[in-house]
Amino acid sequence: MQEYYIKNLLRIKDEHLKVRKIETLDNVMEVHIDFTQGYHTCPKCAFKTCRVHDYRIKRIKHGVINGYKVYLNYKRRRYVCKRCGTRFPEPNGFVTRFSKISNVTKHHILKEAQSVQPFKNIAERLNISLSTAIRHIDRHVSPSRLELSETIAIDEFKKTNLGYGKYAFIICDPIEKKVIDVMKNRRTDWLVNYFGQIPLEERKRVKNVIMDLWAPYRSIVKNHFPNARIIADVFHFSRYIYWAFNDVRIRVMNTFKRDSVPYHMLKKHWKVFLKSPDQLKDDYRYIRALNENVNDFMIHDYAANLHPDLEEAFRLKDFFQVGIKETSFEEAETFIHEFIAMLRGAHTKEFKEIKKTFINWKHEIINSFDLHPKTQKKMTNGTIEGINNYIKVIKRISYGFRNFSRFRSRILFLYNKSYSMLG
């Protein structure tokens, strides 16, 4: 028997450990081990003794190797002190007292927990119970909040557990791509209490807060971050333009008969209509409804000439799309004022309705044109939206979480891999 290689395979390194026998049956491997007899120090009086009191067989789960569920049948020796009569077990480095799983298995639990998979899979892979896997992860994984950075992004995501509202609150660092913290609620009273517990000096370091157009967030940021400016996420205010345009397109489309060419063109080529003018392609292709070869520019002009409201909708949308890409931060205020003036003069009710949104969030929208000094890119909530999608994956593969504290630890542990083991 190549004892040296067997011990390496089992990841048990002790020169006094002896592998006596290995038995395999179906998918179970029984490894019989013990230690050589020697002198050990009494934990009570420090007297050295080699007198054996008795033997006890301890069966220990040791994970899975090559599809075999491994069990260590450890013949544990207990010594008795000749001086004080104290009985004590021989020391070992592969299992702790009262534990039924090996230290190697405990290490593998935390290692497996660093990948996106349900706790049930971890338990099955390591031949342990589900409750043991969860208990061990809860005991050793408790990541703490990261410090606030100069630029932070805030958002919410839908959680699965009941109570405290259906949305959880998340803060991230969009530059370093780290999750700072997750809260179980986004209600104003909760957030006021949460940010109130963060030291003022730390909150003063925040210079930029990126967020969507939710008014409670704005009031909380203004009250708790004295040196921060609010940046509206470009997606959340741009979509109002696309929604208004689509509403106009559908309204005009429904004025035509379903079997007419205008109805077909407005319904089928809606993606072309949403494109920015610089994205339109001049490649010709055959359109059966028109019975001719046309390109994106011709489809664009055809739709714009169908109705005055649609022509105005194209003009407003195209002006906004070009401006959002080409306008610098220094020119942003002029551009936004000009666009608001165009909305004021609009005849279509769909674009009149979004005028108030752009007026109320004018300063935050202007701030979105500024570039971050480190990345030289516009600051958006793209990172936090990606994190929210990552959280959805965690929820889906885990079939939901009933314990929010465990859910929070799971998010921080999986996403912030560089610091998750320090919590």
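(the above was protein one; protein two follows)
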Amino acid sequence: MTIDKSLKRKGRLARLRSVISRDERIAQMKTDERWVEGSSPFGLPKLRVVRLVVGKKKKKKAAEGDKKDDKKKAAVKKK
């Protein structure tokens, strides 16, 4: 049997998933300090799937602008 193309991305899905596995739920509950050791892994509550949003890099432009301002200030001080 062959694997579908959408499942062949370095062991992950190419798109976002709306369902997480039991192991992922337990790990997320541990980070939120909601997991009690010794609890049953069955009947876990539903958890929100966190989606990462990639934003634009505005800080880089601001850093470049700061460098230009520093060069102008240095040129003014030399005169």
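Reviewer note on protein two: The longest helix spans residues 58-78.
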